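Changelog-adjacent note: as of this version, every example in the card shows the full chain rather than a window. The one below runs 278 residues end to end.
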Amino acid sequence: MNDSFITALNTQKATVNWMDVLAENLGNIYTPGFKENQVNFQTFLGGAIMDNPNKKIAQGKSMPGTSTSNLFLEGQGYFVVKNPDGKNIYTRHGEFTFDKEGVYKNKDGNTVQGYILNDKGEIMQGTSSLNADLYQQTSLNGGAMNIPTTNIKMWIDPNNGKFLGKYDDYEIKGDGVLYGKADKGQKVVPLYKVANMNFHNPAGLYEIKNGQFITTEESGSPVMGRGEIRSGLLELSNVDFKGNIAYFQQAKVQMELTNKLISSNKQLLEEALKLVGS
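Full-length structure tokens:
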């Protein structure tokens, strides 16, 4: 016969953990790039336990950014940023800006990764370029491109105040290509392509910080992402507000029932001890 008191205590602990996860979700509804935590429960003879939360991979809605350098990725994939230790980190949170030295970074100071382009818009592999058809075919097949990324730099010449010394402005288009613009927009030159990587099992990525992930054996190695990049927008949290409210109400009812069961068992135990002591 199962001990109802132990069962209730275990279920109470699982419910507290569940409510904590739901509270975190609801508290980050408006946090750009936040991914909803989802939980599953296992049952056993002593009650219920909660599995480690899984991340909801679905895309969040777009919202206006604070700068044209902010990016929104619509579709599959992740932006790639590199930390000071040279480790690649993958994120959907595109709140990027250029620092005073013209280096493209996120809020944590990690450098946004991309590919250097030639004047035809082809990715450079050392001194040679990657054929556009080969790149497109590789992307469509989801294959990995064994081409190292680089930091995106748009330094400003102090002598004339222009990007890279010759461009008045820049623009990032839907294919992720950053263009330098000169002669009042008459001259447009491709400079970099923002890296977009995906994984065969994105759920296997390990989250080191809200919205920032690293690869694991479960996620596999990065492959080409398939998403459209939009400038001046950010991805909002993908938390389902109504769904999490409903779950929170359900968790409250479960907690109330569990607390009543624990209280009843305590009363029974106290009565039993009185009878034994009399």
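Structural remarks: Residues 4-56+239-277 form a domain with the Helix Hairpins fold (CATH 1.10.287).
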